[in-house]
């Protein structure tokens, strides 16, 4: 065996080197020197450290979370001024309350005291009362009015609230009741805590298409 082979065998603990006469001499010589490191494991994992991006103070601290998309909301609500026109999705999911009632014509007749109550002659379904409560959020939590207050969404919502016509609505609970259009009667923007927060409340009634002339089987 050559000197390099004897050296390597002694380092890994081979029994073969013990039979070599020069082993003791080499071992004594190794004790006098510090050997260079031997790369037993040449493979090395690659570093995956990414360079940190430089963010401004407002970007990292005061930037609000992005608004959820339509497929991320449970009951998304959209407005439109035409049946197939451009829709405006309310940016954050709203709370919708729906109240319905029947219009019943009652008449009191002389029928003795054995049968209580009034005679119900005719009834029809009244409009649905709809209350929509939601919130608008600006881009930044703290800053100037232009950066914080949700001016763009406020103007878009205002265009529907003040439109002199029925507003088409697209929302699953309303669709289940056959409500495709609403007439907005009242709306408010109450004081809301937070520079970039603006709450709103909309009160509306359902609106259905009707015909002035009805067939007998449609009455």
Automatic annotation (TrEMBL):
Domain DUF6046 span(s) in chain numbering: 90-215
Protein name, as recorded: DUF6046 domain-containing protein
Originating species: Flavobacterium geliluteum
Record lineage: Bacteria, Pseudomonadati, Bacteroidota, Flavobacteriia, Flavobacteriales
């Amino acid at each position: 065996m050559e000197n390099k082979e004897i050296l390597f065998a002694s380092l890994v603990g081979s029994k073969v080197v013990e039979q070599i006469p020069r082993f003791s001499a080499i071992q004594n010589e190794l004790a006098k020197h510090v050997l260079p490191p031997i790369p037993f494991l040449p493979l090395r994992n690659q570093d995956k450290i990414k360079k940190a991006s430089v963010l401004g103070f407002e970007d990292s601290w005061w930037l609000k979370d992005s608004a959820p998309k339509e497929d991320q909301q449970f009951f998304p609500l959209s407005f439109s001024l035409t049946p197939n026109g451009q829709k405006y999705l309310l940016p954050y999911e709203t709370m919708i309350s729906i109240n319905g009632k029947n219009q019943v014509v009652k008449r009191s007749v002389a029928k003795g005291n054995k049968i209580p109550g009034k005679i119900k002659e005719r009834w029809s379904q009244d409009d649905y009362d709809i209350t929509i409560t939601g919130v608008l959020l600006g881009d930044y939590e703290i800053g100037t009015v232009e950066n914080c207050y949700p001016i763009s969404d406020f103007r878009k919502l205002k265009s529907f609230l003040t439109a002199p016509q029925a507003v088409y609505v697209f929302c699953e609970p309303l669709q289940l009741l056959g409500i495709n259009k609403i007439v907005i009667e009242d709306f408010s923007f109450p004081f809301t805590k937070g520079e970039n927060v603006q709450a709103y409340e909309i009160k509306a009634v359902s609106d259905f298409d009707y015909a002035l002339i009805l067939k007998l089987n449609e009455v």
